[in-house]
Design a protein that fits this description.
The chain has 161 residues and is mainly alpha-helical. The protein has a domain at 13-124. It has helices at residues 3-11, 15-41, 60-82, 86-102, 106-132, 136-143, 149-160. The two termini are 32 Å apart.
């Protein structure tokens, strides 16, 4: 693979990655409505039978704020996938998964955490491959008999460890 091909591949999502985001975003929006409806319906009353305040009660407005935030995150997954931005889609997907996971809906949150982690790892690997490719300056230095920047960095790392 040439440097230009790798730069092009690192800067945008593949079709498989894009499909994960384009399918995952509408499902995330649907899950947002399901989870918040379940949270609102399962919320205990504000007062106990004795008349004291119930410590387990959460205001409904908090659930609606959470719903808006999760919808915004699912929309960001969709927009990042449409624009083929791998890192943005990865962070938004993992963030949605963590948000739902922390609400104790592990079965709904875990696939999003794993998909976000998969996208993050792919993004990291692409950037590492791109860093290790020799540049034109490295090739010119090697032709002159000098050390390349990558080789010099590797030698300095070996010397310090």
């Amino acid at each position: 693979m040439t440097r230009d091909d790798l730069e092009r591949a690192a800067s945008s999502m593949t079709d498989k990655e894009r499909l994960v985001g384009l399918i995952g975003a509408p499902v995330a929006a649907f899950l947002t409505f399901v989870v918040t409806a379940a949270l609102v319906s399962g919320d205990p009353s504000a007062r106990l039978r004795s008349g004291r305040l119930n410590p387990a009660h959460v205001g409904v407005s908090s659930y609606h704020t959470l719903e808006v935030v999760l919808l915004a995150v699912s929309l960001s997954i969709l927009i990042a996938s449409m624009m083929r931005k791998r890192l943005a889609a990865a962070v938004a997907t993992a963030l949605f998964g963590l948000g739902v996971f922390n609400l104790h809906y592990w079965g709904f949150g875990m696939p999003y955490v794993m998909a976000g982690a998969w996208l993050l790892v792919r993004s990291y690997r692409m950037s590492q491959q791109l860093k290790l490719l020799p540049t034109d300056d490295d090739r010119a230095a090697r032709d002159r008999g000098g050390r390349t920047a990558v080789a010099a960095a590797a030698r300095s790392i070996e010397a310090t460890s």
